[in-house]
Fold MerR family DNA-binding transcriptional regulator.
Amino acid sequence: MSQTEMYSISELARHFEITTRTIRYYEEIGLLTPHRSEGGQRLFSKKEKARLQLVFRGKKYGFSLDEIRDMIQLFDQDPSGRQQLERTIQYGKEKIEEVSSRIEDLIQIRSEMEQYIVDFQKKLSELERDKDEYA
Amino acid sequence: MSQTEMYSISELARHFEITTRTIRYYEEIGLLTPHRSEGGQRLFSKKEKARLQLVFRGKKYGFSLDEIRDMIQLFDQDPSGRQQLERTIQYGKEKIEEVSSRIEDLIQIRSEMEQYIVDFQKKLSELERDKDEYA
DNA sequence: CTTGAACTTGACGTTAACGTTAATGGTAAA
DNA sequence: TTTACCATTAACGTTAACGTCAAGTTCAAG
């Protein structure tokens, strides 16, 4: 039991719809640390798969791979010392603040875009009204 | 009156804490279209300044300069024809959906991070408790 | 045991988003 | 008008995040 199923590099690539090159690159810069088979081929555990998932989410929302690595190391190393725990909590709270700030900005952007749409729709309905008056 | 105050390239750069190179680059790729002085030097109006602001907000949240240019052109050209208005509204709604989706994802990320923090804090307080038991 | 697909490590290529430098021209103050 | 600074274009340099290719290795199927 608990044979912790492993994925090959191409299985993982197919699953996330990326190339194997990307995965190797992520290993190069320290985002992943897969195990190896006897022959030296990469074997990815579920944990590595989850990491990769994290990377993609981070990427999609403006974080650089460097920042992502920091955050992954933060939440991945399972700190046990008291000092380490406190530092992690502190750093984590800061990161949460960053994310919150991004959320607020995006909400701001959205509401501005919505205002544009409202204005355009008003213009459009005025056009329709004018057309009717000629009829 | 209404002397529509103008900014030089370095004034603008200082204001946004970027280099003049960046501003010239943004003009190169069509994000800005400043006026020129007699001698050929760039003069930026308030409108251009506002555009730049938009660019930075877009950048900060994962949009490429290409996407940003599309969005700026969209909301900047003040469409007047009925067809054009309808297209703009349609495209705008799509963009709003994209932004909304990003917001939701970020909220998801945040709540996961918060969960980590909660767990770490629990661990920390257990450590404190154990320490007390020894006292 | 062979074959072919999948894998490995280099190493060089590419694109976006600027940085940097050079050679030159414009401008405001003394 | 000269000084000092700010501006211009053109061109080459840089970094992140991969793409692509070559030359060889491992693995699973028959």
Q: What stands out?
A: The interface with chain B takes residues 57-58, 60-62, 75, 79-80, 82, 85-86, 88-89, 92-93, 95-96, 99-100, 102-103, 105-110, 113-114, 116-117, 120-121, 123-124, 127-128 of chain A (CB under 8 Å). The mean pLDDT of chain A is 87.
